[in-house]
Amino acid sequence: MSRFNRSACAGVIALVFLAGVAIQCTPSQPASRRGGAAVQSDVALAAQKTYVAPGDLDTYYMFASGGHSGQVYVYGIPSMRHLASIPVFTPYPATGYGFDDDSKKMLGDLTWGDVHHPALSETKGDYDGRWLFINEMNGRIARIDLRDFKTKQILGPVPNLHGNHASSFVTPNTEYAMMATRFSRPVPQRPVGVDKYATEYKGIIAGVKIDPKSGEMSLAWQILMPPFDYDLGDAGKLASDGWMFFSSYNSERAIGKLEVTASQRDQDYIAAVDWRAAEKAIAEGKGDTIAGVKVLDPQKVPGIVYLMPCGKSPHGVDVSPDGKWIIGSGKLQGVTTAFNFEKMQTAIRNKDFQGEEDGIPVLKYASIKDAEVQVGLGPLHTQFGPDGWAYTSLFVDSAIAKWKLGTWEVVDKAPMSYSIGHLSAAEGDTVSPDGNYLVGLNKLSHGRHLSVGPSQPESSQLLDITEEKMKLLYDAFTEPEPHYAQIIKADKIKTIEVYPKEENKHPLAIWDIKDAGVSRNGKKVTVKMIVVRSTFTPTAFEVQAGDEVTVAITNIEQTTDELHGFGLLDYNINLVIDPGETKTVTFTAKKGGVFAYYCTNFCSALHQEMQGYMIVK
Ligand code: RUQ
Ligand code: CUA
Questions:
Q1: How far apart are CA 440 and CA 491, in angstroms?
Q2: Binding site membership of 68 for ligand 1 (Cβ less than 6 Å)
Q3: What percent of the residues of the chain are helix, what percent strand, and what percent coil, each to the nearest 5?
Q4: Which residue's CA lies nearest to atom 3 of ligand 1?
Q5: How far apart are the CA of 129 and the centre of ligand 1, in A?
Q6: Could you tell me the domains of the chain?
Q7: What is the tens place of the pLDDT at every residue in 398-417?
Q8: Tens of pLDDT, residues 165-195
């Protein structure tokens, strides 16, 4: 049976159950032609559209921010099944992350992070399936390799910049990922009272350069900004390639209860950065070095940044697939504004300004806006579909509005349960969005799942957007705290299942059990160990109390799914070594006695026998 028929049939069975109607499922007929009111019902169609039969695969990956869990969660779409958790800023015993020497070093002193915006690498404005970048509030940004779904680099905490929320959005050829300050503070960092906030505190916008071959990130430049709270960002593309846009609130430069003090003015700003001009200014030696970073001051280097007035306290800022429009709006308004990039360029050329902030020109609102779209209350974020469709999340209305770029007409609204924040459409922030599916990433889920006590999951709702009306297909309950997510075609990601032996260049890797054993250099002891079904070699080793012990473990398996663990009791050590991988852990043998190590990852019928002893004399 074809994949379609099998799925369709099982979907029908599922729904017949729900509808309480007996119906015979003949596999040769597609569900839609089988007739019967129940089969035609929305529930039936929804079941059919989300059902991925056992053994079948989803058509998209969704990478969702895990917020203050410090992780990234991977879901399959349309099933909404949770496929993997990728630890990034937080130790994760399930994969041994944060316990071995390399990942421990990458995490440094911070064992938590608050991640918000995943950014898949792009080529010509389309996802290319190579890397996933993700920001974190403690001024950091990480790179996950999509060949093995592992965190490979954490950059930061970056100096000067505090509270990295408007990040990690990438430019269309992954030249840069972005960073920007949510919490302004004195630059350079020093203790200055909040009474001097308006003049002494500064925001920072930063460009993180990405090596096109390796993906290695390095901090390229920073721009000194007025003390607003920079919130979200998006890169220009096609028509607007070369620009980055950042929304901000608190143009009042207020302190205290911001919900009141930072809502006084009717307009805040979107900052538009000409990143090629910033790059050029740095190359010409125009930056000042502050805390080791090249910082551009727009008062001294004009032409790199402009401010676009936007409705009070905007949140999301999103560039249309053709790059012609920048969508942004006050989050308490009932409209969202489409700014015209060409008009913006004309205003810059004609010096059509309505003022300035710390030497940065403020463009005239009436000159750069094309439309105020009547989307509904509390517009936050906009995603795109093919044919000029746009989807805006409405926090206050708890709904998604569907509208059209260019005609600005709102054609549909879908309620969300409840309080939607971000939303994510299939490839919905690229130059060629897919349509098909849209996921509402809701802040609340109350009442829509079995109770798990006060600490409730969030809800993510899957919608079908293939037709004129959006249709709710599925409620999934996700880990806190989904901010943004991105959905990529599954076939764009090419993973490996084992690390090929030839690629393992680890200096302590060994592949033959005769090379396993203990060597000593003064107080430093190295234990070279092999793991393979179902034994450790060596199965016991001795060290002296006070030794600095490095255990280097190579998993010599070259078979899919054959992971082994190394749990050393009482020493807070827990590694998981994938096939073909070498990992090390270094510790001081402080406690004397006998300590068992054992395989934590089920590997064979004799997994339980996979154990050994460390003797500390
Ligand atoms: S936020 S609900 Cu951190 Cu991206 Cu918008
Ligand atoms: Cu090796 Cu379980």
A1: 23
A2: no
A3: 15, 45, 40
A4: 116
A5: 23
A6: 50-448+456-492 (2.130.10.10), 501-616 (2.60.40.420)
A7: 999 999 999 999 999 999 99
A8: 999 999 999 999 999 999 999 999 999 999 9
